Amino acid sequence: xxAEELETIAQEEREACGRKKHHLHVCMAAxxxxxxxxxxxxxxxxxxxxxxxxxxxxxxPVGCMGLCAAxxxxxxxxxxxxxxxxxxxxxxxxxxxxxxxxxxxxxxxxMDVPFFAxxxxxxxxxxxxxxxxxxxxxxxxxxxTALHQxxxxxxxxxxxxxxxxxxxxxxxxxxxPTGLKWSMVAKAGGATKYVIxxxxxxxxxxxxxxxxxxxxPHRVLExxxxxxYAVGASRGYIYVRAEYPLAVKRLKIAIRQAEKQxxxxxxxxxxxxxxxxxxxxxxxxxxxxxxxxxxxxIEGERGQPRPRPPFPxxxxxxxxPTLINNVETFANIPPIIRQGGQxxxxxxxxxxxxxxxxxxxxxxxxxxxIEVPMGITLREIIYDMGGGIPDGKKFKAxxxxxxxxGCIPEQFLDMPVDYDSLVKVGSIMGSGGxxxxxxxxxxxxxxxxFMEFCMTESxxxxxxxxxxxxxxxxxxxxxxxxxATVRDLALLExxxxxxxxxxxxxxxxxxxxxxxxxxxxxxxxxxxxxxxDDAEPALADAGAKENAS
Amino acid sequence: MPSADKRWRIVDATMRRHGYVGNSxxxxxxxxxxxxxYLDEPALRFVSSSLNLPLSKVYGVATxxxxxxxxxxxxxxxxxxxxxxxxxxxxxxxLGSLEKRFGIKAxxxxxxxxxxxxxxxxxxxxxxxPAAVLDGTVMGKVGxxxxxxxxxxxxxxxx
Lengths: 549, 159
Known about the structure:
The structure holds 2 protein chains of 2 kinds.
Chain A: H1 3-18, E1 22-27, H2 30-33, H3 37-50, E2 57-62, E3 74-76, E4 81-83, H4 91-100, E5 108-109, H5 114-117, H6 135-140, H7 145-153, H8 156-166, H9 178-187, E6 194-199, H10 208-215, H11 217-231, E7 235-240, H12 245-260, E8 276-281, H13 291-298, E9 322-326, H14 327-339, H15 341-345, E10 355-362, E11 368-373, H16 378-385, E12 395-400, E13 406-409, H17 419-424, E14 433-438, H18 443-457, H19 463-480, H20 486-502, H21 506-510, H22 513-521, H23 523-529, H24 535-548
Parallel strand pairs in A: 1-2, 6-7, 6-9, 7-8, 10-14
Antiparallel strand pairs in A: 1-3, 3-4, 4-5, 10-11, 12-13, 12-14
Helix pairs in contact in A: 3-4, 7-11, 7-14, 8-9, 8-11, 10-11, 10-12, 11-14, 18-19, 19-20, 22-23
Chain B: H1 7-17, H2 25-36, H3 41-50, H4 55-64, E1 76-81, H5 84-88, H6 91-102, E2 115-120, E3 132-134, E4 137-139, H7 144-155
Parallel strand pairs in B: 1-2
Antiparallel strand pairs in B: 1-3, 3-4
Helix pairs in contact in B: 1-2, 3-4
């Protein structure tokens, strides 16, 4: 593959696309597929054929368009019209409306609403636009030019400097500066190095990475290849959940296509870089999102974390220096190389640059996937973009960061969303799940839900997490059953402190977060469930008697 | 190979592709589960001897990961998503109604081997919460009555 060949593929694809007058895009990501968007696509194709429009109209499967709650979604790309909740029976009307240019009113989904208008798409720029199973479309959208640019006109230090300049921080949740991580792996000695993409998106309520993998898999491969060049790796792994069969399928297709085009494999773009990517399936263990546990799992072991240091950057997969980044982090790399770190750094806040994808779910009108610049407020996300709380209910809290995160109450709705502000109020950015709760949700119940999660997912290696989470779960159950006293609550708080400070990995250290944050802002809900402490006076009496005798 | 069953050849092919190295254990078990639906003792023994790993380790890894099943599943499976978004929208009640109707707990199979009720951490279909999967088909925004109705029809209890 040369730059000219890449340009030829892009041009041919654009010309083929330009020959068609109408472009019907049907969302074929998991959300819409589960509402049978595949049947909608078949119906549209049949209607196009029946209307004799095959020459002029293209029906294309694309990735996620974002508004998952209103699926199946269909967009008419040439008329900038989107349709929601489309059924196969609607196909005739949609095809009929192509000529008149008058959108079908009953299905029309306005795109000038804040949900779409307030987004800034960098990671998701191709989602819902290109066919994820065709590399030609990714190339036509400018794909793999960043890889070419990095390999042919930048040295490895320049690539890392560009990533550092962008201010990109790890999108898996911890927010470690990506450029710094890359330079650590690049500096580490050793002939063999690895690049791993963490696609073990385990947080319940988070589906950003899945959408990216299903909608634009080549972007992740390109990001990984640039990383491999920068740090000097020749082999990569994508560790993806077995629960995401569609993402796995599309990744496999993408890898095969990239290998065939010489964009993965030996001497990419005629340079000395050789890089191969393999997929490793997760097997349903949340703790494998932790980097050392993930490495153990790729090695075929039980997914148990080990103490750090040494960090994977020094000693990771099979003892070799290893770079681990999240799906979204890699997806940000090609645009950063193409448009420069400075461009990226101009977006967002001082310490959190760029954009972040969020999966908006729970008690909110517009559930779905969004990408917004860092620093946007929670209120803008929930009320403007999310369309507020359904059924006229009152907002109570928003939960970010999955089981390791916390609940944020109403008084912080005007706070900017960035890594540091979220930590300040007792939550974390996490991978980007955002669950909205209304007045009907009991916060103690929510705390127990997350504790049950951490308890079941604890790998059992260290005692504080293995035993502590069970004890905290039992105490929370006791509170909910109205059998707990003030002393139980005090014990719970003490346990939170112990588990947080003595656990080995992030799962245990963050397990108390749900309890701590709900205690901090909704303590009254705990207090209301407590019963009178009648044991204490009895004990005191017994003590007094003993003393007397 | 444990028997003349052709599916063992698929399992063997996975191990051969990885050169029978120990670190292909999880990949191999994925193939076993895809081929047979679950991992029984002969399968674990076969994998253990082929990859030259202690049986204890194979068993340890198989039981560590939620995805691997050591028992056969029912003819039909209904998976209720217990992800946060689904939980907030009443997934626990959905599961409760299924458990009550069929007299089994999550993770169990009915006595006649017709239905297994399972839970999932998160299907990633949060836009469709609460969601359940019946024999591979996702049902979104599903209510208890609707779910029971469809599961009963599928299982044929109402015939």
